[in-house]
């Protein structure tokens, strides 16, 4: 298996814990409670920010004296060392989800669940040559063409209504499915058919572009006399009344569908294997449409971050020059055509071996398919589940070009309240940043944040029998 560029929509720590939320990774998984209720916001907040090319220590590194920290914009920063971290395709993938409501209950050997989630997910891919062009300038590319066809990005904010169930179909096999109705609120995406830069002998740049930027948002695009984009502004006149705000946030014109399915199978009394496919779906965006299509060749002055590093320009000044140059050069047509975005498809394969009634070891492979790219990870875990009262998991994950990714989860239930907190990619190395008479600890080798926490209302605690299988060991 090739371990590369993982981005986990949900925490791998969650998989083998006795929590109602584990159906997000596999709808066949079933917690030990008979009934759970998830309250708005309180029951689940998940934050995941991932990139595959730089760590925290690559952006903030040790300076002189050795206990000080400098950023990548500092004149003493080693740009060449930073650029060695850059890959051909560099991805940044933020994901945030908030559970607005959750409900799950047992019906015999079946389990029915319903949830409403507010979700934001995005992915951006930046070609490595674009970083080199920005930080090292034009000189290394004079007379050549830089292929930027891998540049892409999309981000979407939507609401998900999910209804599913799981059931024992044999003494060994349990299946689960979940259907999703999606309401898109706002989105932006780039459709990149062709994009390249030629660096001329006079260090000017020539863009060759066939790119469309799609938006579903209340925007106004103003063109100048040369039919170039003059400015794009947010149309706040759309929200003069509360009903208009509610209509916008409902997402009822941008409809999509999704599907999850999963299975668990008992090979023996101690060994259970599982598999799932999640987020197989799409959203069709039809409201507040703006498409900016650039298919042309044009010249512009270029982008040189060395001016910022050397202190001759601020990053704001450089950014404004870049925007002005592109704005005056782009020949853009504006349209209002519907477009489609897809959910990041996930595939999980897992197995757990119970050493005792309450203690198990787990192995989990997770893959996500985003466009033409695949993200993969492999997680080992040690799990303790003491009925509905206490659950914990310690994990080690090989992913994201790193092999020091540790995670942990803890859940406990005093009465009807079940509290939990999970974290993947916990940083194990830290740098000390001195400021006057104080010191701040900053993570060193850290390129992913994944945190989930919340509280469930949990009732009942069923007894595990051989004809009522689950992936967690309970009383």
Structural overview:
With about 475 residues, the protein is mostly beta strands. Helix content is about 10%, strand content about 55%. It has six helices and 26 strands. It has a 20-stranded antiparallel beta sheet that branches. Strand 13 (about 255-265) and strand 14 form a beta hairpin. It is globular and about 75 Å long. It starts with about 35 loop residues before the first strand and ends in a 16-residue tail after the last strand. About 35% of the residues are buried. Mean pLDDT is about 80; it is low at about 1-10 and about 465-475.
Based on the model shown, name its key terms.
475 residues; 20-stranded antiparallel β-sheet; disordered N terminus
Structural class: mainly beta
Mean pLDDT: 81
Binned, the helix content reads under 10%
Q: Shape from CA axes? A: globular
Helical stretch count? 6
- If you compute it from the alpha carbons, what radius of gyration comes out, rounded to the nearest whole angstrom? 25 Å
Instruction: Tell me which oligomeric state these chains represent.
Output: single chain
How far apart are the termini? Answer: 36 Å
Report the count of strand segments.
Answer: 26
Strand count, sense and closure of the main sheet?
Answer: 20 strands, antiparallel
β-sheet strand percentage: over 45%
- The low-confidence runs, each spanning 5 or more residues with pLDDT under 50, are 1-9, 463-475
